[in-house]
């Protein structure tokens, strides 16, 4: 084992300067001898020039500078040798002559220079001469000197190999097997020398020495590059002769830097189809690498290479020909089939698990990076298989579970995990990603603050309407109602009016299961951390920052909708349950949005009258006789959209019990039609499509949702009062539910008396109460008188006489209506 100590940097610079001067002097004398056609002196000065490369006092980087000076002069010497052949001197004579040089290193450089010309002239068989040169180079075992000597040999011989189809191939000159033997032998010897470089110099310079070794790694990697460029190298030859020897050399060298670089060089040098056929051998070598090797980089490189190969094989490209016509070409779709037949995904997954189990000290960031590469691979090769994505997430969660929240404080690992969690969102879009059962398990490994950052991005993505191209794993389309026109071949959910306040480009989440999953994804935005000691909870945020977060959640609620009222109500119920866990400070912002979403749903619910009218028109076409109420019902629907003013109902008792706006559509089918069978079928479909949700259920739900704002820590009495008034007006004018509307106003008046101590707020709230009551027409005389009396009494309790007068004048209108 070498244990060489280099001089100081200044001393090395002096040695380099002296050697450079000697090289230039000998080069000048060599050129002069060449011009004088003096072969003996030319070889003598060439040997003197090459003798400067015998130094062992220079570190590899400085030795490389010396080598490049000599390399430039050797090109001039080779041109002289070529001219000598034209003067009658054979290359055989020159090859024998240069072997009389006294020192082994100059002699070998000269032999390589003449030997390559000898092969090029076809006077010598490449097989024997290349074997002779590569074996004789073993005479130089100094790591630096031997490495550069073999690099020179490899570079000069690369175009002289007996490759298949080359001019140097033949029964006597050699075949592809001889070319492989030459390059493989040179590669193995160069790798041994390169590994031994780590033992040069003192221990304190190890990091610097490793950096210098890294700069020289391409000298070794060129052998693999030249191997991959051989025309005669087929898959069978690669699988049986090249790969086993390369992997054996990689695993046996036991050097972290060499193993990492050579595995990456192997993956990048040879064709993708070779890796596809030897996947098991490549993966089997990974656990044999040193613990310090960044196996995650190797795995990521291999999976990325195969993913790009599969994507290119299934992509059709269109090009324009010179004549202006377009031509299309596509790759080989069998590549994906072959990957599936090899079960490459599960082999990668098992290899990652084996690497993690064999290296207990593997950093969390490295493990996450491997699973990130596997996830990208699965998303590229199997774009329609969400089950593979879930498998990766489950495996990653299992491998990282023992490290706890925040992955043990590893910031790099957490960044990698955020990148991993972002892949399904960008590749499949949010609706499909919500089907991933294992996604929340990984998000729980993030620190609360990091998870919140991800949650904000998810919500913003929904609000901006960003979504990936539709895949097979998207949310199922909603079932059209019987009263709607014939559906298109691929129906898509239509955003409900409740989402009209959100951006028209927003993504709409229309399934209850998706909503539940979404709230698990964005848990930090709607609830405090489970660990009280964790940073980032609502208690640590000021009102402005918390409101900024909750405004996003409030906007999100308008993107949770379904075309089916029953499903929409279930979505709102699920959202309400999640919001209650957020605490009083969050409810101040989110409850008003939830209430108005519910009011929008109610408007759609009673808007079924319009659908019934449309269905009646269709019934006329089918021979079903209907009465002439369509225009009247349409006007009523428009009034509902404008606030419910002037809505008239014939039977308050019926609306109180049923409260379903689609009842008229069924009642109007009174007269027998020309086609009774069609009419009966239409009636059955209409009954099946009618929602089970009633106005009473929905409004009682809203009453319960408003309750936390009426008092307690989340108390926002003025906001709660206005929400109660809005719901009371809807209960009166849209639902025609007198008792429920009375309850809303009664709660509002009680809240006014108990929770509004400030006079300015009391006056504003009182005018709101009076205005809302004046617009409600459902009340009978008794209940209207009771509410009017309570409102008038409140007017009398105002402090300022001016305010009392104004309020009493407004309250007087309530008695006129009665």
Automatic annotation (TrEMBL):
Residues covered by region (Disordered): 469-505, 614-683
Compositional bias (Basic and acidic residues): 614-652, 659-670
Entry membrane topology: Peripheral membrane protein
Regions of compositional bias (Low complexity) in chain numbering: 469-485, 673-683
Keyword terms, alphabetized: Membrane, Protein transport, Transport
Subcellular location: Membrane
UniProt entry tagged with the keyword Membrane: yes
Record-given protein name: Vacuolar protein sorting-associated protein 35
